[in-house]
Amino acid sequence: MVEFEVDGEPVKVFEGQTILDGLRKKGIDTPTLCYGETLRPANVCRVCVVEIEGARVLAPSCSRKAEPGMKVRTDSERVRHSRRLVLEFLASSTDLSTAPEAEAYCAEYEAAPERYGPPAPPDPDRDRKRAGHHLEPDGLTAATVYAPVKVDNELYVRDYSKCILCYKCVDACGDQHQNTFAITVAGRGFDARISTEYVVELPESACVYCGNCIAVCPTGALMFKSEHDLRAAGEWDAEGQTVTTTVCPYCGVGCNLDLHVQDNRIVKVTSPADHDVTQGNLCIKGRFGFQHVQGP
Amino acid sequence: MDIKLIDAEATAAERAALDHLLGPPTSSWEGGIRVPERDTRTAATGHAQRSRRHELLPALWAIQERIGWISPGAINYVCERLTVPPADAYGVATFYAMLSTEPRPSRVVHVCEDLACRCHGSQELIAQIEERFGGEGELSDDGSATWYRSPCLGQCDRAPAVLVSDASETPRESVLAPVTASTALAVLAGGEPPALVFPPLPQEDEPSLRLLRRVGRVDPVSLDDYRAAGGYAALRRAIELGPDGVLREVKDAKLQGRGGAAFPTGVKWEAVARQPARPHYLICNADESEPGTFKDRAVIEGDPFALIEAMTIAAYATGCELGYVYLRGEYPDAHRILGAAIDAARERGLLGEDVMGEGFRFELVIFKGAGAYICGEETAIFNSIEGFRGEPRNKPPFPVVEGVFSKPTVINNVETLVNVLEILERGGPGFAAVGTEASTGTKLFCVSGHVVRPGVYEVEFGATLRELLELAGGLAAGSELQAVLLGGAAGGFLRPDELDLPLTMEDARAAKTTLGSGVVMALDTTVDLPRFLQRIAAFFRDESCGQCVPCRVGTVRQQEALARLVNGHGRGDEVELIREIGQCMRDASICGLGQTASSAIESAIDRLGVFK
Ligand SMILES: Cc1cc2nc3c(=O)[nH]c(=O)nc-3n(C[C@H](O)[C@H](O)[C@H](O)COP(=O)(O)O)c2cc1C
Ligand code: SF4
Ligand code: SF4
Ligand code: SF4
Ligand code: FES
Prior knowledge:
The structure holds 2 protein chains of 2 kinds.
Chain A: E1 2-6, E2 9-13, H1 19-25, E3 49-52, E4 59-60, E5 71-73, H2 77-93, H3 100-108, E6 156-158, H4 168-173, E7 184-186, E8 193-195, H5 212-216, E9 222-224, H6 225-232, E10 242-247, E11 256-262, E12 265-270, H7 284-288, H8 291-294
Helix pairs in contact in A: 2-3
Chain B: H1 12-22, H2 36-39, H3 46-50, H4 56-67, H5 72-82, H6 86-93, E1 107-112, H7 115-118, H8 122-132, E2 145-150, E3 162-166, E4 172-176, H9 181-188, H10 223-228, H11 233-252, H12 265-273, E5 280-286, H13 295-302, H14 304-318, E6 320-327, H15 332-347, E7 363-368, H16 378-385, E8 409-413, H17 414-426, H18 428-432, E9 442-449, E10 455-460, H19 465-471, E11 481-486, E12 492-494, H20 505-510, E13 519-524, H21 529-543, H22 549-567, H23 574-588, H24 592-596, H25 599-608
Parallel strand pairs in B: 1-2, 5-6, 5-8, 6-7, 9-13
Antiparallel strand pairs in B: 1-3, 3-4, 9-10, 11-12, 11-13
Helix pairs in contact in B: 1-4, 1-5, 4-5, 11-12, 11-14, 11-17, 13-14, 13-15, 14-17, 21-22, 22-23
Bound molecules: flavin mononucleotide, iron/sulfur cluster (3 copies) and FE2/S2 (inorganic) cluster (FES).
C-alpha cells in the first residue's frame, strides 16, 4: 500500500494506483473529462489537476501515480484557478450543450467563458487547416472549433463543434479497444481535430460501426442518429426513457445490452463500462442491430 | 493488422520515390506484384511488419520531396508498405508544417516572418512579394511555384532568410540569406537559387575559442583536417578511461544541458548507463527551432566530426549502439555536411561494428524533422522518431528509464555534446575551472537583431550581457537599444539598464529570467514592441501540438487579448486576462511549450512596461 496525504489527511491506495484513485476513495469530488475508466489516461484535458507540495507545476491526478509521503492539495487557489480557466477555455471554444457533466463543472468553478468575447461562427474549412498557419485574429470574437455537423451514414452523427479533443474515441477505435484505427487526431494546435484519412466520409473509411467511440465520448459530439434526430426535432426526452438490460441475442459472447427506450422505441444501445465481457464495447450488431425489433 | 485502404492508386513516381527509400516491395502484401506461389500462403504479419512504423516519417518525406505533396494514393502505398492504418498516417502527415496533404507546386519558397528577420526587413520583403507575386499560397503563372510564411528558419545571423524547397527526382532545398525581394521574386519566377555564402565566424581570430575553435578554420567534411586539428584524441582518452571513467569526468565537470533546461549531464548519463533494460539509445537534439537560435547549426555546418566524436563517446559511456541526430528539416546544409561526415567516419571505422577496433559498436543516423518546434521537446522527439504525431509524452516515466522505443535513452543538445570533447581533453576539474562555480565552461550565444555583427559567440560563463553585445559590435551608430530578448520566444526581455547581468544559469534565475537556448536578440527603438509580442503569441499558437487544453486554447486566447490591446479594441481587462491565462498555461500544461508560452509577453509587461 502507498500512504500519502490529501488536504492534510492521510489516504492509502494500492501500489500503482493514481492520485485520483485516492481522491475518490476519500470521496473528494474531482472533475474529469478525458479520463475513462476503461482507457489508459490521456491526461490532456487538465481539469483534474492537483497541487503536489514541492512540485513546480500542477499534476494531472488521473494519471499521476501516488507516491509514499506525497502531499496533495485539491482546494488551493492555484488548483481552482487552472481548473476554472481550463473550463472557460473549453466552454468558450466548444458547444457543451450536450455535455451535462462539463456544464456542471463550469457552474461549480464559476467559469465565465463570455469574458473571452462572443464566439466566432463555424468554419467550413476547419478540416483542411494547414499545420503552423492561421489567420491573424482581431480579438473581437473568441475562436471556436465550430464546424458543420457530419451526417454521412444512417447510424451515428459526428458534430465536432462539441468535441473537446479528449482522445477517447481515437483510443477506443485504436489499439485500446477496437483495433480498427478508422479515426485519428489530424492537424495541430487549435486546429487539431478528429478525422478520417483525407476527411473521407465514414462509409469510405475503415469504420465498422461498432459505436465504441460513441460510448466513450463525454460530450455528445458522437451521437446515435436516432438521438440526434429526436434532439433536432425537440423530442428527446431523457427523463421519460426506460433502460432495459438484456443479453445480446446475436452471438454467444454474452454482451450485456442496455436498451434505452422512449415512446416504445429503442433510441440508443449502450453496454455498462464495468461489464467484464464488454467494458462498454459492442459490435455493430449489438449496438445498431435493433432496427428490426421495431420494424420500419 | 488488417488495414483498409482508400480508393486511390499511387502514381508511378510516388511508388518510385518510396521504393527508392524502402527498396522494392517483397510481395503483394506490401503492394507489390502478386506472385501466387509466393504470396498466397503467408501473410506478412506480426512483429516484423508492425516494427516498420518508425519508417513512417522518412517515407512521408520521400514522397513530399519527390512530388511536392502527399496524395491519397501515395498514403495508400506508404500504408501498404509499412502496415500503418491510413488514418494514422494522415494524422502524422498533417502534424508537420513542411508536409502537405493538399496539392502543392514543386517549388515552395518559405519566407521567414519571425523575430530576427523582422529586425531586418522581412515585413517589407513579404509586402513586396504580396504586391508583385501574389498572396501566400497563390501560384506562379506556370503553376510551378508558390510561397508561404515560415517561422524562424535559424538563419538569424544573416537575416532576412527564405528556404526554397524543390521537389523532383533529385530533390533540393536551398537557403537564401540574406535575401532581397528581387532575388526572392526571381526564384518564384523559376530562377536558379543562388548559392549560399557562409559568412565567417565573427570571433574568427579569437585564440581562446574552445567549442568553436575549428569552425570556419578546417574543411568541415575532411576527416584528415579534423584529425590534424586534434580530432579523435578525446575518444582515445575516453577508451583509456573506460565508461565509468568518462561518467566521472563528466560529473566532475559539472556540465549542464545547453538545450534550455540546464539538467546535469553526468547525472543523466549515469542513470542510463545503470539501466539494465537493453538496448539503450542516444539522441542528439538538433531540432533547434526556438526563434533566434542558430548555434547548433553553426557547429554542425562548421565542425560535424566534433558532434560525431562526442556522440560516440556518449554512446560508449552509456552503452548505446544506435544514435539519432534529430535534425530540423529546415537545415539542408547542416544535413548535407553532417551526412557526408558520418559516411566518412563510417568508412574509416570510426562508426560501425567495431569503432576504432576497440570492440564496441555504434551506428549513427540522421532523422529529419518536418517543421514542428514541439519536436524539440525530448519526449515529442521519441514519438516523432517512432512514427507517431510529435506530441510530448507524460513524464514520469522519464527518458532515462523509458525513452524512444520505450528503452532507456540519453537525449542531449548539440552544444552539450560537443562540450564533452573539452571535458575529456582537459579533465573534468580542468573544465570546471572555467566559468563560475555553478555554471562551468563556456557558452555559445546566438546574437542577433540590431547588433553590428550578428553571429554565434563563445564566451565564458559569467561574461555580462553588456560585454557580449560589445563583442558583437554593439548597436549601429545612432540607434538606441530598446530591449534585449534573452532565451528566445520562451525566454524574456531585459531593459537597457539591466545589461550588467552576468550570463550564468544562476544569475539568470536570480534575475527571474533564463538563458534558454542562448538567444540574445537586441532590439533598437524602431521595433514596434506590441507587434513584436503579437508575433511571439502567433508562434506559440502555431506550434502548440494541441494535445492539452491550457496550451491549445490558452495560446489562442492570449493572442486574441493581445490583438485587442494592439488594435485599440481593449475592454480594459486584457492585461489581467493575459496574466490569468499565463498562470494556467504555466501550471497546467503538459510540457514546456505551454508552460513558457506567456513568459516573454508577461516579461514585456512587467519589465518593459508595455500596455501601461
Ligand atoms: C517546446 C520545446 C522545444 C525544445 N526544443 C529544443 C531544441 O530544439 N533543442 C534542444 O536541445 N532542446 C530543446 N528542448 C529541450 C529538450 O526537451 C531537452 O531538455 C534537451 O534536449 C535536453 O538536452 P540537454 O540536457 O543537453 O540540454 C525543447 C523543449 C521544449 C519544451
Ligand atoms: S464506430 Fe467503431 S470503428 Fe467506427 S470510428 Fe467508432 S470506434 Fe472506430
Ligand atoms: S469526438 Fe468525443 S470522444 Fe472524440 S475527442 Fe471529441 S469529445 Fe472526445
Ligand atoms: S503544452 Fe502545448 S505543446 Fe505541450 S503538450 Fe500541451 S498542447 Fe502540446
Ligand atoms: S481527467 Fe485528468 S487530464 Fe483529463
